Amino acid sequence: MELRLTPYTERTIEALKRSSPAQDEFYQAVAEVLQSLSPLLDSDPRYRKHRIIERIVEPERQVFFRVAWIDDNGDVQVNKGYRVQFSSALGPVKGGLRFHPSVNGGVIKFLGFEQIFKNALTGLPIGGGKGGANFDPKGKSDNEIMRFCQSFMTELYRHVGDAIDVPAGDIGVGTREIGYLFGQYKRLTGRFDGVITGKGWAWGGSLGRREATGYGCVYFAEEMLRARGESLEGKVCTVSGAGNVAIYTVEQLLKIGAKPITVSDSTGTVHHPAGIDLDTLKYVKEVRREGLEAYVRERTDARFIPLSDYPKGGHAVWHIPCDAAFPSATQNELTLVDAKALVANGCTCVAEGANMPSTPEAVAYFIASKIAYGPGKAANAGGVATSQLEMSQNASMQQWTFDEVIAKLRVIMRNIFETVSSTAEEYGQPGNLVFGANIAGFKKVADAMIDQGVV
Ligand code: NDP
Q1: Annotated catalytic, 130?
Q2: CB of 172 closer than 6 angstroms to any ligand 1 atom
Q3: pTM for this one?
Q4: DSSP codes of every residue in 349-414
Q5: Among 59, 245, 308, 313, which one is most buried in terms of CB atoms within 10 A?
Q6: Looking at residue 6, what is its pLDDT?
């Protein structure tokens, strides 16, 4: 059975292009989900009757706002802030905040749309949304970051709440930014509650949240390989990105005896054939917040590949031979050129730590090649799942141990794999986890929407 857009879903996307112009990443994410849904829509007429597709592609609510702040020179700076609350069908809206110059309405909506189905797959009671700003934290002082976060929260606090919408981090938003956002929320409302996740452990955070997305992605890859009678032990792995997801993917790969040999950032790629040195990586990116060239100054047996040496239409990291690949930087960072190079060089497993890192052509190539391919909305769901565990701890005024949290994360990732894999099989596409993830996630949300009436 071939994945396709039917005339009905094509009409939906055309209508979206008219009602929400110039949002290419959003159309890409919607098309990817809709093209998996034909067998479900054909087998159960309720979804068409209740116009679930037309409703689910339109956010329940979106807020765009001005974020004015004062830089260290005393000059006024202005950025644009976003919070898109896509769906509360399964629980309070949940999804991260991204601070990056590339942020716009289309990027936030693609992330929020993906988040609906990802959150449904965790099996936990959370809806989906996303937010952020076109603010670049790079090169800003701590005080500038604080003033920006305070201004951002001065608008956002009206729209969030522990039973309404609970943001978290994403690109450019780590514990430091979460701290400034939470501090301002408390100042404005007088409440110390679970309004945001990714908090520091001493002030309401959860142990294991920092590690959760990267560790969870490796657990998911292990599940995919176990189902094929294989494992990651001793396998050479390539990882892109050098932020939260990438660092803890590398950490978990090292723990289980795999060999991660790359990381990358917006300046280039590090190839370290002896295996990435975790301490050096954390020192360069978490302590010094420097570009990756600094890594090869510390580890001279590694080489740095600058962007100018990347292959045409591709990214250097995917052209280094490996057994398993972990895209963990950003959207559309793995093209068809890259996918072909990976498969030709013997890669048999791709698990996405990032959101929508592979282009649609690359995804189609992985599926046709029948390698173990875990799409982001399933493979990186460990982050949001552990954020929900943080919400649970906050609501019951408890703090669990690291081992308790990680044990729950492991079970959640196994359940997600089993759900997407059995759904793919049930609907006639065994092994196609894109298909399984889209149908399983959509069905859960759609059924809840039908139960809750036309809202
Ligand atoms: P971080 O900001 O911690 O790290 C992002 C990394 O990716 C950095 O190394 C950054 O480089 C690199 N990067 C970002 N944009 C680009 C670009 N356009 N070109 C090249 N490199 C780029 O973010 P996270 O690790 O939290 O997020 C990474 C991905 O994982 C995102 O897609 C995010 O949506 C997804 N994700 C994150 C979760 C989480 O819990 N944090 C949960 C689920 C998904 P540099 O350092 O130079 O800026």
Answers
A1: yes
A2: yes
A3: 0.96
A4: EEE--SSS-B-HHHHHHHHHHT-EEE-HHHHTTHHHHHHHHHHHHHHTT----HHHHHHHHHHHHH
A5: 245
A6: 84
